[in-house]
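Technical note accompanying the year-one report. For the benefit of new consortium partners, we illustrate the data format agreed upon in the data management plan: each record pairs a sequence with a C-alpha cell string. No post-processing was applied to the example shown here.
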Amino acid sequence: MNGVQTYVRVGGFFARFFWHSWTGRGEFPTVYTTNTYRDAQDFLSPILGFHHTVVIHPERCPKTGPAIFCGNHLKLDDPFFVYHAVQLATDWKHCPRLMSRDDFFAGTPLKSRVIDGDKLMEAVGTFLISRGQITLSQLRPFVNLLKDGGSFVIFPGHTRSCAGVLMEYRGAFKEPGGVSFFMNQAQRSRPGNRVAAVPILRTYNPVSRRSAMVFGESMFLEDAADRDAQREFDYQLTTEMGRYVEVNVPQVLSAVLWLWCLRGMPEKTTVGEIRGTLSRIFAAIDHAYVDPEARTDLGGAVVRTLVFLEEREMLVRTGESVTLNTEAILSVPDLTTRYRHLNPVKYLANQLIHLGDVVEAIQAET
C-alpha cells in the first residue's frame, strides 16, 4: 500500500505541474514537506540507486539548522544524494533546501516546450541562482533561510568536476567560494546565530554502485569576519572536505595502471600481479575511509574492476593475462562531461591525487 500511495502522491504532483506548465491555469505547484519528499525519495530510489547509499558518521549531521551542507560535485545526481543522506542521518527530520543554476537544464531535453526542468526544480523547493551574473535578489533567500534557522546544500567548487578531481577550477572559477559569504551575512544580521558549515563527501564506486556519504565535523566562521578571513575559511573548508573521500579498489587499481603506463612498463601483466600490488598498497594505506570490499573481497573487487575497464576498452583480458591499452589510458580528454567515459582510468585515479598518504603508498608499489 505504501508503494501505491507513493506513486499516487508523486503522480499527482506531476499532473498539477504539467497542467500548469501547459495551460497556465491554476496555481504554480510547490511542495516542501517531509512527507512529500519521503515519497519522492522512495520513488527515485530504484532509478538513482539510493539503496546503495551508505551514510558514514551520521552523528555529525546537525539535526536542525542553521547549516550549510557543503559537498563535492562529481555526478549530476549529487544534490539528491546529499539531501537523502541528511534525511537518513536525521531520521527524516532535517530538510535542507537545494541551490541550482537557473539554466541547469539549458540545452537538454528537460528544457523544452514539453517540460521545463528548471521550473520543476523550483517547484520542489530549489532556490535558483545565476552562474554568471548573480543578483542580490537571488542571494537574499539563502541568507534569510539561515537567519530563520534553515539550511541548504551548496557545492563550493561551483561546478561539476569533469576530470574527477576534488575541485576543478575552470573558466571564470578561480577559487572555492560562497559558503563563508552566506555564513557571515546571516551571523552579522542576527548576532548569536551560529551557522554550521557541514562537509559531506560523496564517493561513488562505479563498479559496485556504492555511494559512500561521509559527514565531516561542523565548521564555524568567526563573527564579523573580514574578506581575508572569509577566503581563508573557504580554503580550510575545501581542505577539510578532501579528507573524507572513501578510497576504493577502482580508484587505486586505475592509479596503478596509469602509473605503469606512464613509466613505460610492459603492457602485459596478470590478474595475480595486479591483485598482489593492490594488496600491498591497501596494507600500507593509513586512511580513515576505505571501501570495506578492499579488505574483505579484494580479489573479487579486482576482477570486477578489470571487467568494468575492459568494457570501456582500457584493457583486454585473456584468462589470467591482462594487456593494457596504453594509448587510451594515457589519453587526456577535453574537460567535458565525456571525460569519464573517454578515460575512466584517469578519471578514477584523479579522485585520489589530493590524498598525499594514499598517493605515496601507490607510488611505492609502482
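Partners are asked to follow this layout when depositing records. The longest helix spans residues 2-23.
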